[in-house]
Design goal:
about 675 residues; transmembrane; ND/Mrp_TM; globular
């Protein structure tokens, strides 16, 4: 079987699994789980074969015209370079882990068949984006992911949080997709093609007439899809969906799509120095702001959501200094440890019965009750904090090393100002990342208090998947030399200066947070300001409790978990900034003021004009004939003499008129 055929099967198999799962979900529920797991597993094997065959050699291209358009053709094309084949392995492997994990996590969910089918469709769409060699076909996968995220985030549609979160995710990403679509057509107009290879050839020959405009239009869509400032506001709320969905969205699909798109078309963006500077500023604000927000969150999934935003900021930062090898390297390692973080968080939530770090901090024995989650999450958090030898260290150092080279003028591919922006923000974020990772670890696993009611042990498959993902979270970074072969021979080795600085700052962030936690915990205990003992569970049925634990929407224990905890080190570290950070620096309020309220006002105005102006003309168009009919109806008396008199009078008038006209003509 040819490499091209294998590559075609990689996105097709999850698609077929999704269709079969939807068709058989009700009539043959026993087939749902095999149909959920086997297609992505087979896709993983095939993607690995494609990667092994390509092995960083010349890109494999294949295309057939999809439909004649009369102008720029749309082609069903594959473009398999080293970046594409490696990212496809990540996507398929993470999707397989999520599907396996979900068989245990959602084993009692009545909507599991539709959930599993949507996850498979989501996976197929992302694989289409990864392998596609035509931008219109890529756009199809891009938009299918958007609609899948809408349904998956809103999986628990009974809750208002899930409904509003799914709608928010859909609308915010669509806000970016409008200029993105315009940018795609502008790019095709300048280069004469939607084929990626032809576009890159045209850019290399100076064929872009409007590089800055096109790049900025495309960046709007990237900011929406990859949750970058200022369109990142949908991602923290998307935690209302099931935890495995969060792992899939954050680790290998959707949010990674925007970063991958820029890496795919990096020469287009590098053609404009202004666009790279804009990208650097966007990345810097995203990194620093999301890290500060993560340090203030109480919901463990929201901490991880802001963490994802910040790590995506590192990827876009690498692209801002024109180093797509570093960006994709961090995408790979982040995909491994972020999937592990979310799935371990799901196991922890399952054991603790709450999403709240405050509630966990008032509970003892979580380390022993969720031992697998404890050890694997520790590995993932060390990778997130970028401490050696964990995978995040090597990929983050690749990003910072690229920024250093750009800042010091050792590369002409990116402006020095972009390098300095990325380097400064990246080092500051390294400190903050270690701080919020340490805070999460301490408050989740080192709580003090009585044990809470047991919600049941985690299914074996959930724990097995955690350990499977722990391996790449620990060791994937060590493959930087091998991955460089797939990335065109790029060097991904850490540089001494940035390694020492970033690791030192990470250690400072972790140690300061630990010391602050010791201080605030002791102070709260000494003053009696901290509530002691476990949270009292509310009276509810076992089914309701399970649904509450899985959805993560109302912490079990009432409003006690929402009270400010003086033992929280984040409050002391952030000081007066805490109340702003916990609200995401009020960007939701700004979005409501700038977009939602004007849109609602415009909608009300349109409704008023439709009702009072347009409908007035419509009603008038009906009223005038009705009035004329009423007037004519009065003349219809039914009296034959009256009709004859009117007829004769009319004939007489016509005769007189004819005589007058004849006389005037004579």
């Amino acid at each position: 079987m040819t490499t091209t055929t294998l590559a075609v099967l990689v996105p097709v198999l999850p698609l077929l699994g999704a269709l079969a799962g939807l068709a058989l979900g009700r009539v043959a529920p026993g087939f749902v789980r095999p149909l959920a797991v086997l297609p992505p597993l087979a896709a993983t094997v095939l993607a690995a074969l494609v990667a092994a065959r390509q092995h960083g050699g010349p890109a494999i291209n294949a295309a057939t015209e999809l439909t004649p358009t009369g102008s720029v053709p749309v082609e069903l094309a594959l473009h398999l370079d080293g970046f594409a084949v490696v990212v496809a392995v990540l996507v398929a492997a993470v999707a397989t882990c999520v599907q396996l994990y979900s068989t245990g996590y959602l084993r009692e969910d009545p909507r599991y068949p539709s959930y599993a089918a949507l996850v498979s469709l989501f996976t197929s769409a992302m694989l289409l984006v990864v392998y596609s060699g035509d931008l219109i076909v890529l756009l199809v996968g891009w938009e299918v992911m958007g609609i899948c995220s809408y349904f998956l985030v809103g999986h628990y549609w009974e809750t208002p949080e899930a409904r509003s979160a799914s709608l928010k995710a859909f609308l915010v990403t669509k806000l970016g997709d409008v200029p993105f679509l315009i940018g795609l057509f502008a790019l095709a107009a300048d280069t004469g093609s939607f084929r990626i290879t032809r576009i890159l050839d045209a850019v290399g020959n100076g064929g872009l007439d409007h590089p800055t405009l096109i790049a900025l239009l495309l960046l709007a869509g990237v900011a929406g899809k990859s949750a970058q400032f200022p369109l990142h506001i949908w991602l923290p709320d998307a935690m209302a969906g099931p935890t495995p969905v969060s792992a899939l969205i954050h680790a290998a699909t959707m949010v990674a799509a925007g970063v991958y798109f820029v890496a795919r078309l990096l020469p287009v963006f590098a053609a404009s120095a202004a666009a790279l500077v804009v990208l650097a500023v966007m990345a810097a604000v995203t990194m620093a702001g999301s890290a500060l927000a993560a340090l203030a969150q109480d919901d463990i999934k929201r901490v991880l959501a802001y963490s994802t935003i910040g790590q995506l900021g590192y990827m876009t930062a690498a692209l801002a200094v024109a180093d797509r090898s570093a960006a994709v390297f961090h995408l790979l390692t982040h995909g491994a440890f972020k999937a592990l973080l979310f799935l371990a968080a799901g196991a922890l939530i399952h054991a603790a019965g709450t999403n709240s770090l405050t509630a966990m901090a008032r509970t003892g024995a979580l380390r022993t009750r969720a031992a697998d989650a404890y050890w694997t999450m520790t590995v993932a958090l060390l990778a997130l904090a970028a401490l050696p030898p964990f995978s995040g260290f090597f990929s983050k150092e690749a990003v910072l090393g690229a920024a250093e080279r750009a800042a010091t003028g050792h590369t002409e591919a990116a402006p020095a100002v972009a390098g300095w922006i990325v380097l400064t923000a990246g080092l500051a974020t390294a400190l903050l990342t270690a701080a919020y990772a340490t805070r999460l670890w301490l408050r989740a696993f080192h709580g003090q208090g009585a044990e809470r009611p047991v919600h049941g042990s985690q299914p074996l498959v959930m724990n097995v998947i955690l350990w499977v993902l722990a391996a790449p979270s620990l060791a994937l970074g060590l493959a930087y030399g091998v991955l460089g072969d797939w990335f065109g021979g790029a060097s991904l080795a850490p540089t001494l200066t940035t390694s020492v600085l970033a690791t030192g700052l990470a250690l400072v962030g972790g140690l300061v947070t630990y010391g602050t936690w010791r201080h605030t915990t002791a102070l709260a205990a000494a003053t009696g300001a901290r509530p002691r003992g476990p949270l009292e569970p509310q009276a509810e049925s076992e089914a309701e409790m399970a649904a509450e634990v899985l959805t993560g929407h109302a912490p079990e224990g009432g409003d006690l978990a929402e009270r400010p905890d003086p033992a929280d080190p984040g409050r002391l570290l952030l000081g007066p900034l805490h109340r702003h950070a916990v609200a995401g620096f009020h960007l939701d309020a700004a979005a409501r003021a700038l977009f939602v309220r004007p849109t609602l006002a415009a909608a009300r105005l349109a409704a008023f004009l439709d009702r009072e102006v347009v409908e007035t003309y419509v009603r008038a168009s009906a009223a005038v004939p009705r009035l004329l009919g009423t007037a004519v109806r009065k003349s219809q008396t039914g009296n034959a003499q009256t009709y004859l008199t009117v007829l004769l009078a009319g004939a007489l008038v016509l005769a007189v008129a004819a005589v007058l006209v004849t006389a005037a003509g004579a």
